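Hi everyone, sorry if this is the wrong subforum. Our group has a chain we'd like a structural model of before ordering constructs, and none of us has done structure prediction before. Sequence below.
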Amino acid sequence: DYVLDVRSVPTSSINFPNLRVTQLDEVASATLKTGDNLSISYQVSNVGTLGTGASSWVDRVVISPNSVYGDGDDIQLALVPRSGALAAGQSYPVTRNVVLPDGLPGSYYLMVRTDSANAVDEALFEGDNTTATLNSFPVGLKDYPDLVIEDLNVAGPDGSGNYDIAWKLANRGTASAPTGQETRVQVV
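Answer:
Right subforum, don't worry. Here is the predicted structure as tokens:
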């Protein structure tokens, strides 16, 4: 069984809201690393002929190794709620800091999809809600600690059934480990 949701609209007068990301600033920093804060700035406009009707929706901010939204490799950075209807011709700016995910170096495009859950009925105009930066930007791998147990030695049991366990804790990463680390011993 298939269900088809069809809307018939006279083409002589198509009056609907149409939300678009009309401005998305390029990422200017070439020294970003995983885990860094990234300042983003964009503007959403209602370029349609009617107001939005809906008074709240959510913009979704992602990065992707390509400029195609929704193809399975997008990494979500933020969901930005919008509160307040938008009349035809009006717009709103958004500036916010997001955190780049840890451990994912590479080259990425920044993309914003306004009204990501389709709360605003845009009828024929739903397909233009996403904008990507024209250029990708590099993200390097941040320095991380890598704590490793080395030289594990187990001796025993002694006459009382006790074992002696000794090891060395080494940092084989490229950054210092924070103080106050705990080592757990599990005997199986």
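For your construct planning: The mean pLDDT is 91. The longest strand covers residues 37-46.
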